[in-house]
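Batch manifest, entry 17 of 40.
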Amino acid sequence: MFNREELKELAALKADDRCFVSLYLNVNPITNVKGDYAIHLKNMLKNTLEKADKKVLKKISADIGKIESFVAANKREFKKGIAIISSSESSFWKMYSLSVPVKNEIIVDKTPYIEPLLDILDNYQRYAMLLVDKESARLFLVHLGEIEEYGEVHTPDVPGKHKRGGWFSLSGNRFERHIDYHVGLHLKDVLKKLESFLSEEKIERIIIGGTEDTIAKVKDMLPKTVSEKVIGTFHVEMFAHNNDIFEKARPVMEDFERQKGKNAVSQLITRANKGENAVLGMEDVLNVIQEGRVMRLVFTKDFKDSGYACNNCKYLTKQKISPCPYCKGGMEEAGYLVELASQRAIENGAVIEIISDNKELSNAGGIGAFLRF
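Output type: structure tokens
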């Protein structure tokens, strides 16, 4: 499993006169019923070789062969998507098996192409999921389209409902209070486990599942610091299969991420228009990246742009200039300017946020940044 620290290291890689081949392949069995991705891969690799000039072809031939052999030999182990970054000249190879599908792409460049991985990290955040009833609880970690059970809490001695004429001689109301007392003890144990889980895994988002009554009890008992992390609830049977639980909770996560993106864009545009540590548009973004001022880079998922990059100090610009105004190095065309800007921002410690289908940001230039100063 990859994380932002690993992507930061990838973003800093530069092969100088050598090349990286970055492959993203959708191997989702739902959309590749007959293993059609093998045909797609073959065509992609063929087109890449045909378009490459002789100098580049010599550099990447070994990578193309290695990628093709790897995919052919490991078909049964794939999930929904794979990402491979290879540079034989640099003795570099990285493969990620992904639980989410990706767009078919193959990019040859002097640096790894990591924008799809950034997109996945941004759109598949880490969530804690608590499934709870009056005597049991299950904890899950949800990340990158996968759900993993973390632990279970069971309190077997919680009394059941009072049966009229049964062995319990207490009144109905008094017996209910007795049950509530034991349920309360059980939920306290559950919340201790939850807080430990959140602290260990450094998770900022919680979803609670169960019956309406139990969810209400849990939410009333949550300390404020934990309560603020709850993004939604859902109803599901306690002993449902992990995949069924994930599907029930998916709409909660999707709604939260959609609203989060909408709020971020609205705040970005407002602050940029007021000149309050935010900018919009590629040229202004590139300027603040060069100055190391970007705290959070925000752009729409399908936003693309091209420009020029210094082959020495990595300065980026939309303008066709030479030499580099900072180090006098040579400037070369950069067809993947958004990707290079993302890499520079990550190197400087910025967070990347990729927004899906937002007309407001598209109309404002497709890209913007919140600034440190």
